[in-house]
Amino acid sequence: MIAGVLLAALLQAGSYERAPLASTDFVWVERPTSADIGKFYPNSTARPVERLVVIECLVGREGWLQRCRVYQAPPTDNGEIAASLGIAGKFRVSPRTKSGESTAGRKVRIPILWKLPD
Questions:
Q1: With 4 labelled, which of 18, 43, 64, 92 sits at a CA distance of 20 to 30 A?
Q2: Stated pTM of the model
Q3: 85: buried, middle or exposed (CB in 10 Å: 19+, 13-18, 0-12)?
Q4: Tens digits of per-residue pLDDT, 24-36?
Q5: Residue 8 in domain
Q6: pLDDT of 118 over the 80 cut
Q7: Is residue 1 part of a domain?
Q8: More confident residue, 31 or 76
Q9: What CATH code is carried by the domain that includes residue 74?
């Protein structure tokens, strides 16, 4: 009995996790608008011209991104991390990828490049 419970716990703990899909594999239903970008734009003047943040999110059943985290960020943060996580809620994907796979429960990595206005 104890061995069966232990085996079940080990099987659940070691469940297979699929690799994140590239953002180009998804059909984007909604993306941040320029107004959204303006709302979340980092307010620091102490940053270089361009800053890249890559977020990794889980796709929910309705296609909205959830449980986002920072996958890659500059060594110093000038507000881009919070801005990237804040804007993540404005992305939504189709229930199927371009190749027909279900997107629910899949991870996606989204590169967000923050640039100073011209």
A1: 18
A2: 0.76
A3: middle
A4: 888 999 999 989 8
A5: no
A6: no
A7: no
A8: 31
A9: 3.30.2420
> For 27-68, how does the pLDDT look when each residue is reduced to its tens digit (9 = 90+)?
999 999 989 888 888 876 565 678 899 999 999 989 999 999
CA distance 40 to 90: 11
Region of 84 on the Ramachandran plot (φ > 0 left; ψ -120 to 50 alpha; else beta): alpha
- List Cβ neighbours of 106 (8 Å cut-off, separation of 6 or more): 18, 20, 21, 58, 59, 97
Query: Can you read off the two tokens belonging to residue 5?
Result: 């419970």
The parent domain of residue 42 ranges over 18-115
Q: Is the pLDDT of residue 20 over 50?
A: yes
